[in-house]
Task: structure prediction
Amino acid sequence: TGLLALGFAAGIAGGLLGVGGGVLFVPALVVFANQSQLGAEATSLVAIVLVSLVGTWRQRGYGNVRLRDGLVVGVLSPLGVVCGVALANAVSERVLELCFAAVQLMFAWQLAKKAGLR
Result:
């Protein structure tokens, strides 16, 4: 039930604040589900596919989807995924954890800056 609540909370945070669910999913899967960093990141990526489909469907109804741009990103993404998976498998679990933490801090700093809190 904890992971269900977390999934719901991450969905709300993503919808309200525009943060990716992975910002919450990955740490929660590591801490609460005892997944490895690599496993948590992979699980989060699967969730992104489903969330992206729902988000695209809803936003298309509002006229906010640029289909051409989306197709370009969609076609090029698998190349980035292959490179990212190869890199994630080549480095240690600790390096992945530290890199994820650095990205989290960068996002937090950017959000604080946009809110005028720097």
